[in-house]
Amino acid sequence: MGSTNSTLLKIPNVEVLMQETGFSPAHIIRLHDRFKALDKEGRGHLCPHDFGAIKELAMNPIGDRIIGAFFSPGKETVDFHTFVKILAHFRPVDKDRPKEPNSPEPINSRSNKLKFAFQLYDQDKDGKISRDELLQVLRAMLGMQVTDEQLESIADRTIQEADLDRDDTISFEEFRKACKHKRFTMFRFCIRPGERKLMLTLCHWSSELQDQHEL
Amino acid sequence: MGPFMSPFNNLLCMLLGISFTVWFTLLLVFIIVPAIFGLSFGIRSLYMKMLLKVFKWATVRMERGAKEKNHLLYKPYSLNGIIAKEPTSLEEELKEIRRNGSSQDLDGSASLTTGPSPSSSEFEMSDTFYFCRRGIESIVDDEVTKRFTAEELDSWNLLTRSNYNFNHISTRLTVLWGLGVVIRYGFLLPLRLTLAITGVSLLVVFTTMIGFLPNGRVKNFLSEKVHLMCYRICVRALTAIITYHHSENKPKNGGICVANHTSPIDIIILASDGCYAMVGQIHGGLMGLIQKSMVKACPHIWFERSEVKDRHLVAKRLSDHVKDKSKLPILIFPEGTCINNTSVMMFKKGSFEIGSTVYPVAIKYDPRFGDAFWNSSKFGMVNYLLRMMSSWAIVCSVWYLPPMSRQEGEDAVQFANRVKAAIARQGGLVDLLCVNTNVEANEK
């Protein structure tokens, strides 16, 4: 236990971090260990190519977008606090959170989760997903198997369904509505008992109708 | 008060005296004497079977209890949050998705448990969530980091230290756990400590005595017997239940024995079945005393701290030892750091350059009874030994693999990898061929 406390002490402003993100001390330590492991040169911050070294992420079709989400515009480095705050988006929603009128929305609220997902599409950060941006994502995910024409028709269909104000782009509100009726699990770290693995559900995100007021 | 106390005192003294005598006699008969002759009463296997039954019962109760009360049995995110891959790798999943890309399958409820919706005509905006999730998973954890935390279990063995995942524990189970604590700390721990102290002191005393004999067959014979006896006592001190496989491949003189390394106990486990020359750095204190007395009885290879840095000196001493066929086989752990017994990290090549026969040995611990993994960045040695001695038991299997030698045109690194693959395959361990940078960071 002694070593646990001493690791926490080394992290500056760790209490504020825990309060803002809702991670427990144990999680902070785990994330700190991971941060240090990724920061191979020990500089105390991460660069895009530190993320790029993760093999699975490199194979991921939207890997570079996910990496980009960690770096705010203009910044080339990510410190531990930002790292944790971004990952805090994926914590489960705190169902019993008291509704204080003046407190800021928690990072892992449904709305913020959706915002994170939205920015994966909206690379130029103008608040709207243009047809081009949608096409880029489609191309990355569906790749060579699908022809360009098919891709274009999928994009058209998607915009048609989601775009309610007919401006040929998808705003955040329209995105939110498009994702509303779906039940989906955003993160599940699966480990099955028979193979000595554990189930760790980091975020279960179900947007049933009765939970709409959260959004 | 006076006259009342003295008969009582006498009685107390008598009782204490008797219980001590009984205790030590039992100890001697059931543990030390068999250790000397290498026999076994089978008590430990019986103990092991009984424990397994209790653990199974405990887990079933927890599952039943959780179902009744509708609680989550597994914690939503546990302390060590180990993350493993999905059943399918990202590559396979991607291929699957793209293969279905031009089909007309529909499924309105997208991305339930596995990938995004397979159909191109029904692409959903939320399909990116699946890839986002896999991406974040890989940022938070990947194969290499996982190897350094303790392996997590799906049934609880009544040790709080292994309880990472279980939420719901009924009162009956808590009582059982409490009983377990009493047994382990009140009965087993003192017993084991006594044995450990006996074993170590016998080792020091006898090896020093043997040191006075002139070099020759008698000395070697006696030293072998003494070493074996003391290691066997230490094995019983840990309640280690070891199964040896393929003993016909046991290392012979003039060879190098190479094994995967999970904990400092590995040495005791191997040395209780055969005689080896140990290699290591001279420590101060108790360890140093043990090392000095061991080397009087038979030649071990101990290096001063300054000599360890000089690789040529190390290599020369090792090869000199190996060339002398009358000397015992050397025991080396090439990994150089403790891995959590699910994989075999890259072997360092130094030991493979010496050019003699290598006898690989795979050691695999059964984590159900007590986790033998030593996370040296978290726990010190004394802490670790106490944890070991207060676990239920250490159960492990040792496989002696057929000897291997370096072939023509194979360099040390390739040879090392070949040996490592053989060990990993035998022990059912995952063979991790990766750059050692993370290991360096975690090195003790």
CATH architecture verdict of the largest domain in chain A: Orthogonal Bundle
Order of helices and strands of chain B: HHHHHHHEEHEHEHHEEEHEHEH
Main-sheet strand order of chain B equals 1-8-7-2-5-3-4
* N-to-C series of helices and strands of chain A: HHHHHHHHEHHEHEE
Strand content of chain B: 5-15%
Number of helices of chain B: 14
Organism (chain B): Cyprinus carpio carpio
Transmembrane segments (chain B): 20-43, 169-187, 193-213
Region (Disordered) (chain B): 100-123
InterPro entries (chain B): LPCAT1-like, Plipid/glycerol_acylTrfase
Explain what you see.
The complex is a heterodimer of chains A (215) and B (444). Chain A is mainly α. Chain A has 2 domains: 105 residues, Recoverin, domain 1, CATH 1.10.238; 89 residues, Recoverin, domain 1 (Orthogonal Bundle), CATH 1.10.238. Chain A has 11 helices and 4 strands. The longest helix of chain A is centred in the last third of the chain and has 15 residues. Chain A is globular and about 60 Å long. Chain A starts with a helix and ends in a 9-residue tail after the last strand. The C terminus of chain A is likely disordered. In chain B, strand 3, helix 9 and strand 4 form a beta-alpha-beta unit. Chains A and B meet through helix 3, helix 5, helix 8, helix 9 and helix 10 of A and helix 3, helix 4 and helix 14 of B.
Q: What is the compact description of this entry?
A:
Chain A: Keywords: Calcium, Cell membrane, Cytoplasm, Lipoprotein, Membrane, Metal-binding, Myristate, Nucleus, Phosphoprotein, Protein transport, Repeat, Transport. Helix content of chain A is 48%, strand content 8%. Chain A is mainly alpha-helical.
